[in-house]
Amino acid sequence: MSDTQTLRQWLLTETPTSRRHAKLSALYQGWLSFRSNTMAMVGLGILIALVLIAFAAPLLAPHDPFSQDLGNRLAPLGTEGHVFGTDSLGRDILSRLIYGARITLYIVALVALIAPVAGLLVGTVSGYVGGWADVVLMRITDIFLAFPRLVLALAFVAALGAGIENAVLAISLTAWPPYARIARAETLTIRSSDYISAIKLQGAGPIRIITKHIWPLCISSLIVRVTLDMAGIILAAAGLGFLGLGAQPPSPEWGAMISEGRRFILDHWWVATVPGLAIFTVSLAFNLLGDGLRDVLDPKAGE
Amino acid sequence: MMSTLLDVKNLWVKFPSRHGVFDAVRGVSFTLGRERLGIVGESGSGKSMTGRAILRLIRPPGIVEADHINLDGVDLLRKSEKDMRAVRGERISMVMQDPKFSLNPVMTIGDQIIEAYRLHSSASKAEAYTKSLEMLEAVSIRDPERVMRAYPHEMSGGMGQRIMIAMMLIPNPEILIADEPTSALDVSVQRQVLDIMDKLVKERGMGLIFISHDLNLVADFCDRVLIMYAGRIVEVCDADKLHDAQHPYTRGLLNSLPRLDAPRDRLEVLQRDPAWSDAESVSGRI
Amino acid sequence: MTMLDVNGLNVWFGKNRDRVDAVKGASFQVAGGESFGLVGESGSGKSTILRAITGLAPDWSGTVTVNGTPITGKKRPRGFFKTVQMVFQDPYASLHPRHSVDQVLGETLHLHGFDDIDGRVAKLLDDVGLGQKFRFRYPHQLSGGQRQRVAIARALAPEPTVLLLDEPTSALDVSVQAEILNLLADLRADRGLTYLMVSHDLSVVGHMCDRLAVMRNGEIVEILDVAALRASQASHPYSQQLLQASL
Asked: Is B21 helix (H, G, I), strand (E, B) or coil?
């Protein structure tokens, strides 16, 4: 017990003794204020559970998600051996949900890697360099923003061919412009601040200023925005899956599962509803997490 | 000796935080008559919090506690939020440091003054308009009709602050709380704004609480001064005797100022004594 | 020997109809090791002169010579910043909110090509009276005075000969102002620095400087010795008015 006490004191110290100590201490302070937000902790808990489920899918799933049992098709909730019932081909819905978590995570991770990074690059360069670069980059952003997201994604997928990777690519391509806008707006205020002037007076060039001084300040608000957008991204991926343009059968992608289940929605409602609830839960978890992160990361609220 | 307008006894302002409760104001007591009362201190001394606490403008999670804050014998702490709204502006007004943040940027100055006036009285629009013009003239604004049509961003800092004072004084309050009203202004304008404030306060027999970090300004301008340190009053004295103040903190502040008429190689540095913040708050009650 | 020679300096913002002339025909010389003050009210163009010298205000004309080398155009060569450094007005705005003191000073030293960065950071902190326990703190863990000390340490890192001080104490309490002014005076004595100090406060400039220029509406109305100022020998009515207000 006394050990954890001193660890806590070490982390909360006002006088860190090394670079690592200072970083850890700052992280711990952030964690403490995040932890005081119960709803955000619930969101984080759900997402951690999702990651664990995705990793341990083969251990957790009671059945093979692809094995069909036409004799036992459309079994209702609570059937023995099939807690969430079975779908039109007699596949266990719970097992498909568990494996589907992997696909959802895969989509989320890929989009989260591509869209904000592209937006950050475009936005900060446009905001910092200004002039012609700003005009050109922002007009391109405007063009992307002018299309409804799902329609643009549909067009991309139609051009690139259906499939989960192409769906992710299409969603990313339609998701980056808002991030570019945010990053640019933040860069414009940061650019004129004294601490940027000060580092200019040390002879720092634009690349160093953008990557080392502007990015760290933009990234936090982008992270918040990404987590809040994640729900929309999951829904867009599910929508593409639903329209048959995302994951292809027999893949247990949640959106594709709803799509398959919609034919029986009146008589066998659980086939579409259970994956729908999964999408709902994960989207909600991301929103809760995003809210909590905003409280911790937003520099305007903090200091 | 004089009638007491405001009587504050044992005022505390507390902010609960992760590291325990932070006391911004700790047991401050004072009275205000029809006089100019200065509150001086450094940033973090609790001087602004004291001003805000009187009007119950401390936002949660901040807590205001006091034995009483009596305005004409009625405890403000016992009033409902609705009754407090009537007190704010009508009986006690407040002028903040920067007029830019106190004026609505998308309304003309005239509309804002008229609105402020009509909030507290049932005057007609025309009446309110003439009254507003009079007030702007009273704060020495030339061409008040043009100013009435202007937007806040068209005003200089000094003009903006004078407009704020005009706005605050229209409902004829008994007490004006001015929180660093001139620190955003240049020295030459500062004097002007102070003179106007002084004239109005005197003419109307108001009580003025003047919150500032500037000792010389307060010594010049006020009748009585409370010196605050770490949330407590460490010394109370008459403003004209401020330069003979006794408390080592006040002395230290005075000595740390560079002076044109008394050049020194090094400025005196204030040596803070922990005993100052532990000592009991001095009462500013008469 | 003249360290800083400003001759007929004009600085403006904006173009054509929106053009605002912030500084009009300012000329003054600062000798090596001297401390020179620029005094005026807000909008008088005093800070703009510093920004023009450092290249932060890009549109200017006239001649500016630093230690015999004329400066040109918008960009300053890297070597320029080894001679001239600046301390900003607001220590709450001049430090990057996500960079620790160690990062701020370390990066500055790295940019100027120093080695033994660890040792130098430690020495800089000692020089400005902060000490090692502040090394890994973030700006929000520091008071205003401590932040301004970090900003001064950053300006001293490249070992400049000229320090431009833009109202270095106007955002600070008077007791902290005294500490910072003492520190600046000590540093100048130890290192033989040349100061160009901007302030709206005549008594601060009177304390810190040998000579000063009084500015109004972008023009220098008078240049005089501090001794003459103290003896109330200012000749221009505006200088007298300022003097009246600060006595």
From this structure: strand
